Structures are given as structure tokens and as C-alpha cells.
Amino acid sequence: MLHWPEPVMPNGLILMYEIKFRLGTEPEKHECVSRQQYREHRGARLTNLGSGNYSAQVSATSLAGNGSWTESVFFYVPPPKRDDGVTFYLVIIIPIIVTLFIACLTTILFFVNKKRNSDRLGNGVLYASVNPEYFSAEMYVPDEWEVAREKITMHKELGQGSFGMVYEGLAKGVVKDEPETRVAIKTVNESASMRERIEFLNEASVMKEFNCHHVVRLLGVVSQGQPTLVIMELMTRGDLKSHLRSLRKENSTTQVLPPLKKMIQMAGEIADGMSYLNANKFVHRDLAARNCMVAEDYTVKIGDFGMTRDIYETDYYRKGGKGLLPVRWMSPESLKDGVFTTMSDVWSFGVVLWEIATLAEQPYQGMSNEQVLRFVMEGELLDKPDNCPDMLFELMRMCWQYNPKMRPSFLEIINSIKEDLEPPFREMSFFYSEENKPPDTEELDMEVENMKNIPLDPASTRQPSAAVAPSSGCTGGTPPPSTQQLSPMQGPSTPLLGAVSPSSPGPGVSALASPGQALDKHSGHVSANGPVVLLRPNFDELQPYAHMNGGRKNERALPLPQSSAC
Fold first, then answer.
1. Among 32, 119, 155, 463, whose Cα sits 20 to 30 Å from the Cα of 350?
2. pTM
3. Which option is the CATH number for 240-527: 4.10.910.10, 3.40.50.620, 1.10.10.10, 1.10.510.10?
């Protein structure tokens, strides 16, 4: 019997424990212990152990993920004592065990066959048994989003999604004042496990809270009967990555980019959808062109969080035996510490802009995923794409500040490009909506001492040089005249983008500065009048966010972490 105390301050609800143990130098064995089993015994009983010296370690798994392993404990299992009566008991026990085994096997086969025949009848009822130790939420309960199955008609396949096939079809009565609506219908594979089915419905439940023109809308759910269906707004032009690649010219070495105004419009629509998610305390964690969708009128919207992971599986990388990670879109702090905030989404947004400017080339082309990890964590950045407008590249560089607190928010990004957006944006966007009321103006803190403890770029890549100030984001990269140079006394109405750290350009990084001007590696800003520091209001602690792929929101459980050994 192996006993251990519970963690004193767990990072969330404990779901289970994992034990790894080994005999001498033999391979490790793993065993999972549910929360209920632990409560009964205050530990776990390891069975079928041979004699010898063992070592064991325990790790706890909570809603936040897997914990660290305890120090090894050692114990000895003595060899079994010989008993003259063992043979007698084996003669009696073995036939009994064999008989029971045959009886159990017959019973199991009977019920399996009965269930299979019942499923063929199609009675429309899903019977599920879920381990409460792994699912703290109740089973999905139909609500006002439920749509009758007979109102849905499937027409053609659109592609494979994370859980199953996605179809185009028609739905009746899902949109007000529309008898029939063209929709996208997501399905779950027949072979999917109960956990996958619940994750499928949980993803739909998350999207029930979204009501933004630049986020793909959920229109309904069909949870009664099989297969389970999720009805989504139809984005006829597919994902943004495929759309951008469709704009490429065949047999041409130099690609013609869309007009700058069109690229800025895409950027504004994506930033508006992300600012809505941020306002609702959600972190996307996988913002990329493949996860943005394009409507019939070319409006770009944030996709439904996970449809394209299987389609673009090469864009993901499994780091250290963990889950799949989109490393080429991840910020330094996410790669290094696993920290995901809206500021890490801003970094990913900068990579999406780079994808737009290259018609969906792969970021960091020619590098392996391991090389990308080191490259980004050392403070290096993507090069300026060919024929990329200076204004767009300037926006990318602001999103790629190494220190997340120095990056602009999505609302600040929209504010800097709003004059270049189409008039319908003002009517449809979250940015101009009543829901997005401007916060009270805060006085700027001019004490430079407050900036001392804020890490900027990695020490290994910093070179002393003159501090720099940002140029206008809407002048195509041309250095502004001295009369327009921002100063530390800039008014609070100016969308300040944080303090700019000194640095010299690294190898392979394009320079925007003219001769004699300093260039900041991470912001792309130039300074002609000596050191200038731009300050923002005091940096408050970020409020907790509910991640799109794990955590809780309004007491609904999203997909939970699970040990790879279970």
C-alpha cells in the first residue's frame, strides 16, 4: 500500500494522481489513481509486484494540468513464502476462476450484441456513462439552442474537422426572418469516444456566448439522437490560409499582393473579433490564418476554434511529449513558460499579418520546429516580406515586442488603422459598438523608476544603442518630421504603445531607418532626436482568462487535461 498526502495548495481541483514505479533498472510502469480511490485509501495499492527493491514517484493532475513529480521513495517486496498447501488450493481455485471467466465472457458478449442491435434500431436516444472523476460538469442538457433534426438538410462535404466531417446544408428557422439558411454543419465521428463527444458539445457551448460580427456565429445544436450536429454560420470562401493561397499566380516567381487597403481591412476585422474575445475574458491560443474564415463578401472572421487542426496538422508540433503546439505562431513567453494571455494572441496576430503579406507562406520557412523555438526565445524576428508595405510591417513589429506588456492591445491596433477601414466596419464592428465603451482616462505615470523591473529583450541579444521613439503607423514607414515627433509629454488621447527598448538590428532583420537613425529590433521605430521613453499607465495584473482549449467559464467545464499515461 502506497500512501501520500494531498498537495497543500493545488492549482485547481485535483482530478487524479499518477504513480510511476520501477523494479531496479527495469522500465517504468505507470498507474492512475482517481480522486475517489484516493479518498477511500488515502493512497493506492500496487498489485502484482515481484520481489525486489522498488522506487516510486507520485504526480497530481488538476484542472490546470499535470503537476511535478515527488521525490522518489523506496520500498522492498519480499519473496512469497512457500506453503505445502498451495498446490491443493490451486487445484480448487483455478477451475473456479476459469469457470467464472467463461461465464463473464459469455455475459459480456451477450450485452455487447444486444447493444449493437439496439443501436441499429435508431431509437434516437444516447445512453452514456461518464466517470465523474474526469468530467466535473453534468451531461449536456438541451436548451434554447436546440434545433430539431428534421429541420436540417445536408448537401455536400466541405472538409474534415477536428471531430468529424463538416458539411454544407440548409437549416430552417435558425435565423430570424429567414425561412431557410445556408449553414455549415459539423459532425462527430461515429467512432468518437464519450470524452470527444462531450468536448464537441462543450466547444459549441463556449460559442453560445459570442455575438460579434467578426466571430463565426453558432446557429444551433442537434444533441438528440445520432449523430450529434453543431450548426454554424457558413463561410463560403473557406479558411483565410486557403483563400490567400488561391490568390497566388501560377508559374510566377514574384506574387502580386492585394491592395494595402484590403490587407488593412482584413487586419482590422481580425483585430475586432479578437478584441471582442478579449473583452469577454477569452484567450484564443491558436490565432492563425488557418483559424480565420472568409465569408461570401470577403469579411474575415475568427473561426470556430479547432475546425482546421487536422487539416493543417503540419503547422503543429509536439514539444516534449505534450499536446500539439502551433510553435510558429507562439510568443516567446508562451514557448518558454506556457503562458497564454491576450498579449500572446497579439503576437500571433502579428504572424497572421505576415501570412497576409506573403499570401500564406509558412512562417520561419527553412527552419525546423526546434530551431524556431530557439530563434524566437532568443529574440529574433521574421524578416520583412517582399513587396510588403512599410505600414503593415510596422504593425507587425509592434505586435512582436519581446516584452508582452509593451505590445499594443487589439483595441489600440484598431484605433491606429481605423481611418483606413471601410465604412461598414463602423456599423458592424465591436470596436464602435455600445458594448465597447471607452474606459476612463488615466493619468500617465511619468516615473521612469517604475520601468526598471520590466524585462524587455533577452540579454543575449541586446546591444547598447540609442533609445528610439515610434513613428506614425499610417505613413508607410516614412520617418515623420521633427514637428510630429512624439515626446514624453504626449497627451493621453494618443494611443501609446509602451516603452521601446534599445537594440541594434539582428542578422536577417530588415531595417526601416535611414542612415544615421537608430532602429529598434522589436518595434521597427526610428528616433532622430535622442533618447525618448514613452510610458503607459501603470500595468495592472491581468484578470484571469478562460482558455479556449481548457478551463472554466461561467461554471461550464471545457475540455480537461488528461495524463498521457491514462
1. 463
2. 0.55
3. 1.10.510.10
